[in-house]
Structure formats: structure tokens, C-alpha cells
Amino acid sequence: MPEFESVSFPGVNGTTLAGALDVPDGDPLGWAVFCHGFALGKNSAAASRISKALAEQGIGVLRYDAAGLGRSTGSWEDGSFTTKVADLHNAMDFLRSSGRPPTLLIGHSLGGAAALAAAGSETSLAALVTIGAPFRPSHVAHLFADELETIAAQGQADVELGGRTLTIRQELVEDLHSHDLRDCIESLNLPLLIMHSPTDETVGIENASEIFNAARHPRSFVSLEGSGHLMPEKDQTTRAAAIIAAWAGIYLQQARAEGS
């Protein structure tokens, strides 16, 4: 049975990020980092179930909470897309420092956009997976579109997201709009798997098309038909993990052989 380890590591702005390592039995095929979506956390259905299922198939996974979520210190309101990308690098640095260099990067929703932004400068990676990712980080702003005028006028506003009240600041809105991922995707020199539901009502399927069209080969697309954006369905997360393990396996094997 895979084991579970609670870990922590430094984040940006002096924060400490709480993480979980899903550790396979025996010698892992590789190590992955899972970057969760906007305000979701490491224990969201997609992050926890896919990570645990991958560990059962021999791939170790680090998932972690952004600042201000779960047991991570700091304030979520102080975060931005820029800090999300920086903390993704911090997570990969943590794995390396513990003797587990990450060879697979997985990002869900806005975490997928962060993975696309971060992957190009991570030399240990062998493959990249996005799940329900937006082509533009600014796409997230539609979640609080009704409050954008208030945020602009007052500098911030409280918004109900995912069953919790969060403060959205104008700095976050501006930061989301300041990032264009096209160059990151076009210059990406990694095998890329794009997973997306054609009926995703939060991040439309056209985002997957834009990412796919901008990316180089080898690139693959898998339709997660029947899945909701947050992937609350266990059969969908089980299926996604099986596909990721099968697709990434050859690249992780090659990376392990080259590193041995």
C-alpha cells in the first residue's frame, strides 16, 4: 500500500506551505508535483484522488496547499498567479532537495496554467499534464465577474467561491491579466498531455484547443467526457489517473534510465 507523508516547505513572502506526499511501494517510477486549481487546495477531489491513484501505480506525488489554505501559512488574499507559479517552483525545489527530482508535472484548472508557465525552466521534468486548464490565466476572472466593478472601485471585494468567502483584490485581477502563456506553450520542449471535458462549463473546451494548437509535438489530447470541471466523480479521477500513468510511463522510464 502507498504511504502518506505530511511535509512542509518554504513558499514566497515568508510563508510555509503544507503538503502531502503520496509515496508508492518500492522504487518509484518517478516523482510528480500536482498543482491545484484556483482556491481549491491539496485535498480537492482532483488533487487527492488522482495523486493517490498515481501512487498506487508507482508514481510518487507531492500536492500542497497555496498560502492561506489548509495548514499553509500566510493569506490567500495576498496571492496571485505570479506567486502561484513561484510556489510551484518552490515545490519542485523541495522535492529535489529531498532526493526526489520531479519528472512529471500535473496542473488542474488554474494550476494547469501555472504548470504551463513554470515547466519550461524546470530541467528535471520529462512530461507535463494539464487538466481543465485555461489558455489565459485571466479566464479565472469570470468567476467573480459581477464584482469586478466593485473590486476596481474599492480595491477589493468579498466573493463566494467553492463554498467559502474569499477576498479578491485588484492586484490579483491585474496580475491575472498581465500573463500571456502563448510564448511559454510555443517554446515548451516537453511531451504535453491536455485533458479536458467537452462539457466543462467553468473552463470551456476551446481552451484545450488553443493550448493544443500552440504546443509543439509530442502533444496529446484526451477528452474527459462526462466529467465536471472540479472532477467530483471518483470514476473520472480514477480514469484520469490511469490515463496519466499509461501516457507518462514511457517518459518517466526514459528519465529514470538517463539518471541512473
Summarize the structure.
The longest helix has 26 residues, at 234-259. The protein has helices at 45-56, 81-97, 110-119, 148-154, 170-177, 182-186, 206-214, 234-259, and strands at residues 3-10, 16-23, 30-35, 59-64, 102-108, 127-131, 156-161, 164-169, 192-196, 219-223.
Strand order within the widest sheet? 1-2-4-3-5-6-9-10
Report the CATH architecture: 3-Layer(aba) Sandwich
Average pLDDT level: 96
Element-level helix/strand string: EEEHEHEHEHEEHHEHEH
Give the domain tally. Answer: 1
- Give the CATH level 1 class: Alpha Beta
**β-sheet strand percentage:** 15-25%
C-alpha-based Rg, rounded:
17 Å
Give the class from helix and strand content and strand pairing.
alpha/beta
Number of helices: 8
User: Distance between the terminal alpha carbons, to the nearest Å?
Assistant: 25 Å
Q: Biggest β-sheet: count, sense, barrel?
A: 8 strands, mixed
Low-confidence stretches: none
Task: Report the CATH superfamily.
Answer: Alpha/Beta hydrolase fold, catalytic domain
Overall strand count: 10
Provide the CATH topology.
Answer: Rossmann fold
Query: How does the overall form come out from the CA principal axes?
Result: globular
InterPro entries: AB_hydrolase_Est10, AB_hydrolase_fold, Hydrolase_4
GO molecular function, one term: hydrolase activity
Domain Serine aminopeptidase S33: 30-176
Organism: Arthrobacter koreensis
